[in-house]
Amino acid sequence: MESMKKIYLYICILSLFCACSSNELSLSDQLGYKASIDTVDILQQEYPLIFSCMFGMQGDKQGKIKINKLGIQFPEEVSQERARSLLLHFIETYLDVINSTEELKPHLSNYPFTKENIEFVVYFSAPDGSMSYHPNINVCAFRNGKLIYKTEEEGQTKGYKSIIRESYEEAMEKEKNSLMKN
Q1: Backbone CA torsion sign across 28, 32, 34, 38
Q2: CA distance 160 to 122
Q3: How many whole angstroms separate alpha carbon 17 and alpha carbon 11?
Q4: pTM metric for this prediction
Q5: More confident residue, 62 or 1
Q6: Cα–Cα–Cα angle for 103, 36, 107, rounded to 5 degrees
Q7: Each residue of 83-114: pLDDT tens digit?
């Protein structure tokens, strides 16, 4: 299984290198991708995550970055509380990287970039890379100001067993309360 992860990571890095070195990508796109890679580099120093090569951007009419997107795989089975804590940290790190990259600022549709300007997806798995099943969170995403948690039932072929949504503000309040208890 470890060799498969290394092969997958190699393919992702190679794909990214090819995409970012392409003359077809604008400077805005290249800098947006770089911000995603820099974020992953920082997070990999703290967590055993795997860069899933899911990233992208949505531009405005002037060709500036309106939304930057990033997705990662996290090899840990987690509860909703742990998923929330991780995703909130990942969101803040991503925004910090984007807003502190001087060369990227002129390519952003607005500065500073806010939570409305990013999307972040985390795919959770068991440490051996196999699927993570209910009651553990399988996918956690941040999109349009909402955190979304999804679980899968083993053997399920379509959809999710549960989908839970909460606003960013609700998530922050729950995280704050959780930290105060500990």
Answers
A1: positive
A2: 15
A3: 10
A4: 0.83
A5: 62
A6: 30
A7: 999 999 999 999 999 999 999 999 999 999 99
Q: Which of 121, 173, 176 is nearest to 144 (CA)?
A: 121
Who contacts 37 (Cβ-Cβ below 8 Å, separation ≥6)? 16, 51
Residue type, 95: L
The residue-averaged pLDDT of 11-34 equals 66
d(CA 19, CA 148): 29
Residue 139 CA, chain-centre distance (Å), reads 10
Q: Length of the chain, please?
A: 182
Question: Is 94 within 8 Å of 118 (Cβ atoms)?
Answer: yes
Please name which of 12, 21, 20 lies closest in space to residue 52, comparing C-alpha atoms.
Answer: 12
Closest to 96 in 3D by CA, of 75, 77, 114: 114
Are the beta carbons of 117 and 109 closer than 8 angstroms?
A: yes
Cα–Cα distance for residue pair 72/62, rounded to 1 Å: 29
Which residue intervals of the chain are DSSP H helices?
Answer: 2-20, 27-46, 80-100, 168-181
